[in-house]
Amino acid sequence: MKQNFIFLSSEGDAWYERNQTHLTQINIAEEPDISYILASLLPVKDQIDNILEIGCSSGLKLKKLCDELDAKGVGIEPSEKAVMDGNAMKHDSVTLVQGTGDSLPFADASFDLVNFAFCLYLFDRNTLLKSLAEADRVLKPGGYMVITDFDPGTQRKRAYSHFPGLFSYKQNYGSLYTSAGLYYLTGKKCFSHRSTVFDTDADERVSTQILYKEKDAFINES
Ligand SMILES: C[S@@+](CC[C@H](N)C(=O)[O-])C[C@H]1O[C@@H](n2cnc3c(N)ncnc32)[C@H](O)[C@@H]1O
User: Which of 78, 97, 169, 188 is an S-S bond match for 8, by CB 3.0 to 4.6 Å?
Assistant: First the structure.
């Protein structure tokens, strides 16, 4: 539980403080993850009433998704400061709670869309599968799981430059759901940590994957 605890106690706030100004200056709708999610899910917005965003920081991206999809949003984020600032903005449609993705304080099947918002690479490895299971638990069958994260093509880790002893873990997280046969990959946008297009440097590659949670993943042969 080392990384999760450090993000809860200090590094979540530190990430927020390093990026707070930048987050308010960007055009959220033009961010590659958000523009792709909206282009893909606007046609099915009638099916999306409740959104959970994991690793939401102060909730600016979550608010954009809620506004465009006419949905209510809940965000979970370890940074106390980001959660306080986000809730102080008093968006009617969005509520943020402090916590980490390995323990979600929400009922089973309570969301139509769960968005892992570029955070899985920071999760402790010993509770990674628990975190994936928690997101699956709270997502309704027939809902959408969105994952934005580093996606280099091969599993790799790198020392996290802002805190000694922590790592960034890069791998194809969507495949952990699709290989179970319970999720279908509806689409994937490849871009980069430093630009909006595919990167030949594997270490910089990022993708947004949109997975559909099958209502019944098994063909009945009887
Ligand atoms: C790279 S930032 C992304 C922030 C925002 N979602 C965005 O796309 O701009 C990663 C975020 O994940 C949060 N985070 C780190 N570990 C987490 C965990 N175990 N559970 C949930 N969020 C976590 C960090 O505090 C930080 O806000």
Answer: 78
Q: Are 65 and 71 in contact (CB under 8 A)?
A: yes
State percent of the chain over pLDDT 90.
95
Instruction: Give CA–CA dist 185/175, Å, rounded.
Output: 9
pTM above 0.70, yes or no: yes
Instruction: Please write the tens of the pLDDT for every residue from 77-136.
Output: 999 999 999 999 988 899 999 999 999 999 999 999 999 999 999 999 999 999 999 999
Residue 159 in domain: yes
7 domain residue, yes or no? yes
Q: Name the residue with the closest Cα to ligand 1, atom 11.
A: 55
Kindly give the distance from the C-alpha atom of residue 75 to the centroid of ligand 1, in angstroms, as a whole number. Answer: 11
Which domain covers residue 185, as residue numbers? Answer: 2-213
- The total number of structural domains in the chain stands at 1
Exposure string over 11-43, b if 16+ CB within 10 A, otherwise e: bbbebbeeeeeeeeeeebeebbbbbbbeebbee
Nearest-CA residue for atom 27 of ligand 1: 57
Check which CATH number belongs to the domain holding 160 and give it: 3.40.50.150
